[in-house]
Design brief:
30% of the residues lie in helices and 24% in strands. The chain is of the alpha+beta class. Strand 7 and strand 8 form a beta hairpin.
């Protein structure tokens, strides 16, 4: 039976590319699916683009491909990624320019059309359009402050780019698992938009499940494994192997990792990743198929091999998710520490002094957020706080204060409220930082858009030459 082998690339912007080499050289993969975009990554890329219009893409793709291309070319492996972010063509040109300096040749396909900002900026679209996905708030509340809006595309344009012979496919915002589903559709000849039977939808659902397992790099093979008493049994995380999936024509999938690498692929690590970020296991929505995990069976064959079967699928519907970003003021952040004796009491007194200054100087702000790293910064209000003698006996208390304000001048002046307390406030000996730690905030606006408004505008452009 025909099959396709796909290896995981990165799981986020800045992830480690080194384990990908083992998948290329030792795991017999035909494709690498590399996911560079988390929900908030576009906000980071927008700040890059504001500084330099030629940027706006995940810049880690350049050193990654410079490192991997010789092995990709030698092994005939094709590379699919969403590192294009807000500027896919800019990413492709940067890669090709770097390749040219090395004397390398590659055919790079660019997928564009996910940018739907003009549609969200169009006030004539009518009330109720593009409302916040969770609160229902109308987009009018942020329309004038919007700076990007990108729809989650599906697998189709990537399939088409691969059919054009691309060695490397660079997209903007696509659904994470589409990076895997597209090579499966292309390599195995599955139906996509013309899927009609339960078998068609089942194969696509299997592909989506595999893509969801692959999309977080080492998290699918034992990294970030949180099971109490079991995480210590994951071997050699210093040399972790990224997940690899072998998917057959009928959709059956064998999940594994490259031989001789660290990490673990077993029933527990696979199920943790499959349920990650899934709000409804019976209706995990994507642009290509709605996945029902209820019938999935994981058969642990041992030796880092798990067989995945039983995913069911339904048609995806007529809407695509959009992630938008808008200017949302500024933040200023300060961290300082207080040492025993009375560390907790000193921290409380110093924080109250800052609140008093904010009030008396009438500094405009929306919020002063206060947390105590080591005590409650991981779990917030759920963190049990020491009381009585235990509280009084704390050796040190670190305090993080974050001011959120619509006024840039207020943010820039926040740090100046603190230095005089070095000699005139509660005694502190654990250091201070953040005098000039100011940044602009970008809020996230999730919404929906009609598929018919987006897909006709999707474009594929092939650049460069085949090696």
């Amino acid at each position: 039976m025909k099959y396709v082998r796909i290896g995981a690339g990165l799981g986020f912007y800045g992830d480690n590319p080194r384990p990908v080499l083992a998948s290329i050289e030792r795991a017999g993969v035909q494709y690498i699916a590399s996911d560079h975009l988390a929900e908030l990554t576009l906000a980071i890329l927008q700040k890059d683009r504001q500084r330099d219009p030629s940027l706006g893409y995940a810049r880690d793709v350049l050193p990654m491909l410079l490192r991997l291309w010789p092995a990709l070319r030698a092994n005939g492996v094709r590379f699919v990624c969403n590192a294009g972010g807000l500027n896919p063509r800019g990413a492709a040109l940067a890669v090709l320019e770097a390749f040219e300096r090395k004397g390398w040749r590659a055919r790079v396909a660019v997928v564009t059309g996910d940018d739907v900002l003009p549609r969200l900026l169009d006030a004539s679209a009518g009330l109720g359009r593009h409302a916040h996905l969770f609160t229902g708030e109308p987009v009018d509340a942020v329309r004038e402050r919007l700076v990007f809006a990108n729809a989650y595309l599906g697998a189709r344009p990537i399939v088409d780019a691969l059919a054009l012979g691309a060695d490397i496919v660079i997209t903007g915002r696509v659904a994470d698992a589409a990076l895997t589903l597209a090579p499966l559709v292309h390599g195995l000849g599955w139906r996509l938009e013309d899927a009609v039977t339960d078998e068609d939808w089942g194969r696509l659902a299997q592909g989506l499940a595999v893509g969801h397992w692959l999309e977080c790099s080492g998290q699918g093979s034992g990294g970030n494994f949180g099971a109490q008493g079991l995480w210590q049994q994951i071997p050699d995380l210093a040399h972790i192997g990224y997940p690899v999936a072998e998917v057959a024509q009928d959709g059956g999938a064998l999940l594994t990792k490259p031989p001789g690498t660290g990490g673990r692929v077993n029933f527990d690590t696979v199920r943790q990743q499959l349920l990650y970020e899934v709000h409804d296991p019976h209706a995990y929505r994507s642009p290509d198929v709605v996945l029902d995990l209820g019938g999935v069976t994981l058969h642990d064959e041992g030796e880092d091999r798990v067989r995945l079967t039983g995913a069911r699928g339904q048609p995806p519907g007529e809407w695509l998710k959009v992630v938008g970003g808008y200017r949302d003021g500024y933040k200023a952040e300060v961290t300082w520490g207080f040492a025993w004796p009375d560390a907790w009491a000193k921290a409380q007194a110093a924080t109250e002094i800052i609140r008093t200054q904010l009030r008396e100087q009438r500094i405009v702000h929306d919020e002063l957020f206060v947390e105590y790293p080591g005590l409650d910064s991981a779990h917030g209000a759920l963190s049990p706080r020491p009381t009585g003698e235990a509280l009084a006996a704390l050796n040190e208390v670190w305090t993080r204060l974050v001011l959120r304000t619509p006024d840039k001048a207020a943010a820039e002046g926040f740090g100046r409220l603190f230095p005089w307390l070095a000699l005139s406030g509660p005694a502190y000996t654990c250091g201070f930082n953040g005098l000039h730690n100011v940044s602009e905030l970008l809020g996230i606006w999730p919404t929906l858009i009609a598929r018919a408004e987006v897909e006709p505008g999707v474009r594929i452009e092939c650049l460069g030459d085949a090696p």
